[in-house]
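Recap from last week: sequence in, structure out.
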Amino acid sequence: MTTAVKLKSFGEHLRTLREDAGLTLKHVSEQIGIDTSLLAKIERNERQPTKKIIKKISVFFKVEERELHIDYLSDVIAYKILDEEADLSILKVAEEKIKYLKNIKNEK
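Predicted structure tokens:
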């Protein structure tokens, strides 16, 4: 995944995939089995996709599911930090907590 893609939101990435393929919202929504208005909202970052939708999108566009999942989760984290008006030091603390929680999970 290129840096430019990483900086796009999930919705922007999805719109780019769709437009680059020359497809309409209606066509893509029919192919992945969701409502056209829901797909449009996801592209505008007004709604978040489910894991099931992410999987369907990855299969349809033949992109790595992990790549789309990273886009999605990074959006969730970025929007949460913005909403809380927190600074980026939270990410360092979160990184340490992740390491701690992984160790606890692995000990079980």
